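User: For my dataset I need records formatted as: sequence, then structure tokens, nothing else. Please produce one.
Assistant:
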Amino acid sequence: MPINASITLRSDGPTSVNGDRIRLLEAVAREGSISAGAKAVGITYKAAWDWLDALANLFGLPMLDTRTGGRAGGGATLTPAGAKVIEAYRRMEAEMARVVRLIEPDLAGSGISPLNLFSGYFMRTSARNVLRGTIVSIDADALNADVALAVSDETTIHATVTASSLKDLGLIVGREAIVLIKAPFVMIAPGTKPPTVSVANRIAGRIARIETGTVNAEVVLDIGGGKSLAASITARSAEALALAEGNPAFALFDAGHVIIAID
């Protein structure tokens, strides 16, 4: 039977590399630009960038090489990593379909669908920011622990977890993990000098994009290493701070607003 699987290639659980994102990559490669690829799969240009940012954060590598002056407002081609992601996803999708065909006869008449078995292994998250990293330090007491994860050579994110969570998740230095931060928890401060505020995370970067609505604005900060952080702030704040694409800024968020997930 045909199957449209949502496959997490890294087996990290919280975020899936689903067929829609793979189709976007394929469409951009085929059409030669992000805007044309977005149109081909029926999503907005902003949504396309959001998906591409998520993939880059997930794998730590950009999926596309972009350039100005191409057709439809700018050219884009697959990076070697992007091509490998597509190939791996399609191969895993085909393999999962093969497994479903094998086990389906054994489940006949039971009321259980093969897809029910697979769906429990995959989750999606509403968190806008999902980044993979490696635990570089843990500072724990009897109640809580500060866990520091390097998500790139330039960026370390701190998370506060309970002592029981530290044990239950098996968090140790050197282990890979995922950090999740909802965009409304992230504040933006323009400039090159980190502000003096009582938050554990003050992440330097440059403003890559700003999408402003009547009430809110989304600010995407390039934090290096092919990764980004998105903040959801009020449109009034974006205007008052005079935020502009290309300018340096800091993403600010508390360690208590960071969730850690593991494979």
